[in-house]
Amino acid sequence: MRKIACVGYRGWALNIYKNLQKHTDLEFLIISSKNEYSDNKIIDYDPDIVLFYGWSWLISDTLIQKYTCLMLHPSPLPKYRGGSPIQNQIISGEKLSMVSIFIINNKMDEGDIIGQAKYSLEGKLSSIFSRIEDAGTKLTLGIIKNGFTPVKQNHKDATYFKRRKPEESEITIDEILTKDSTFLNNKIRMLADPYPNAFIKTSDGKKLLIKESEIID
Length: 217
Known about the structure:
Elements: E1 3-7, H1 11-23, E2 27-31, H2 39-45, E3 49-52, H3 61-66, E4 68-73, E5 81-82, H4 85-91, E6 96-103, E7 113-120, H5 125-146, E8 160-161, H6 173-178, H7 181-190, E9 198-201, E10 207-210
Parallel strand pairs: 1-2, 1-3, 3-4, 5-8
Antiparallel strand pairs: 4-6, 6-7, 9-10
Helix pairs in contact: 1-5, 4-7
């Protein structure tokens, strides 16, 4: 393996790519936004593998068939396939998750898994991102150095979630009256920057953003 193309836009994904550059002597092409991306740019570079960590857009069959394309999804696949996996796990009350790296096919998050590593979903979102970066870097370095053996996902165990919309960040009166402190704290911390922050609507028609919270007795 000589050349790796790295495609992403999320901060944690780009940090993984930077870590890989520090710890290998391979050649890298880094594409850090959708505007920079094109199939032709990848094909012209002709990499040995293509990493699409945290990527949110469909990848063409041309690339899937021509190259080994890998995706990192921050959930214990086959569970929590689909959008907003970190948020959907936290709001569901999960405390422990897994970074999953898999071979991309033409179905959402259904490709063969080549590596998984545990990470905690507790604490601030910034700490969660750091754990994903650490686990993702170690997993990827192992794949680069040692190769991999694909393992098929058990599709019977799969769960699917949609990408969360900004309006779902509202903490409603109904939630305040019916949900416990853990649920509300989870909703606030899972929506820290760079996500659409949790908010409440005020009587003057404005939104009051809630960026941090703490549970006390």
